[in-house]
Design a protein that fits this description.
By secondary structure, the protein is an alpha+beta fold. It is built from 4 helices and 6 strands; from the N terminus they run ββββαααββα. Strands 4-3-6-5 form a 4-stranded antiparallel beta sheet. The longest helix is centred in the middle third of the chain and has 14 residues. It is globular.
């Protein structure tokens, strides 16, 4: 079962529910969007939002995606700019994310497109009793 998440006016597909490892806790939502131009206000989803268990995992995902430029038409200069952030600029966002701030990386690409990766803390509720189809297992209902 999946839903949608609204981000800056764009509708992004939400991943299907899966059992969490803990009954409840904190997670870190990573969203990747693009804007057709620097003055555009409407985000276009590039990838489905993902929730990570820890801030380090969320920042690692952003670093890997930025390095690869997945979903974006990046020039060699754009790739170099993303690689510089991925190698040296991620430490402060990691610390800020760990204390509850929203962080991100925004690149104005040579094509005029804007690439944006963002992460923010979210509360999550574990659904340990649910199967992949979202129904309770029979033995839990007895």
């Amino acid at each position: 079962m999946s839903g949608v998440i609204g981000v800056n006016g764009a509708t992004l597909p939400a991943p299907a529910l899966a059992p969490a490892r803990s009954p409840a806790g904190r997670g870190f939502l990573v969203v990747v969007v693009s804007y057709p131009s620097g003055d555009s206000r409407r985000a276009v989803p590039v990838a489905a939002p993902r929730v990570f268990a820890g801030p380090r995992d969320a920042i690692r995902a952003i670093r890997e995606q930025a390095r690869a430029g997945a979903g974006f038409d990046m020039s060699p200069g754009d790739i170099a700019q993303a690689a510089t952030w991925a190698e040296h600029g991620w430490r402060v966002p990691l610390a800020l994310l760990g204390v509850g701030a929203q962080v991100g990386l925004t690149l104005l690409l040579e094509s005029g497109e804007v690439a944006e990766w963002s992460a923010r803390p979210v509360h999550r509720l574990g659904l340990n009793g649910l199967t992949e189809q979202g129904c309770y297992r029979k033995e839990l209902n007895s």
